[in-house]
Write a structure and sequence with these properties.
Blueprint (H helix, E strand, L loop, with lengths): L1 E3 L11 E8 L7 E8 L3 E3 L6 E11 L4 E3 L3 E4 L2 E4 L2 E6 L3 E4 L5
Antiparallel strand pairs: 1-4, 2-3, 2-5, 5-6, 5-9, 7-8, 9-10
Length: 101
């Protein structure tokens, strides 16, 4: 499974690296994949088992400042920013969780 996202921009032209995490829960307690210090906005992993998953990408510049993605997941407690929810079905199909306000 290939994970990709839009590239980040640094106003001071500092180098940016990414950390991507894939978890079974929106609190990221059950991480199934993590990759740090990625130079380009993509990562690749094996397709996980069918179920609900959450992906989180964090950009970090050379000064150590970080920014999470603007996506969010909605629970009864409100919006949880910095993540995107999706489902794996049929062993290979990816279905995005779309929340409409």
């Amino acid at each position: 499974m290939k994970l990709n996202w839009d590239a980040s921009y640094d106003f001071d032209a500092e180098t940016i690296t990414y950390t991507v995490e894939l978890a079974k829960d929106y609190k990221f307690n059950e991480i199934v994949f993590r990759q740090d210090n990625i130079q380009i906005p993509e990562a690749e992993t094996t397709v996980p088992a069918d179920g609900q998953y959450f992906v989180r990408v964090r950009a970090t510049n050379a000064s150590g400042q970080t920014q999470d993605a603007f996506d969010y997941y909605v629970t009864d407690d409100g919006k949880n920013y910095g993540m995107k929810c999706f489902y794996i079905t049929g062993g290979q199909n990816v279905e995005e969780d779309i929340y409409e306000e």
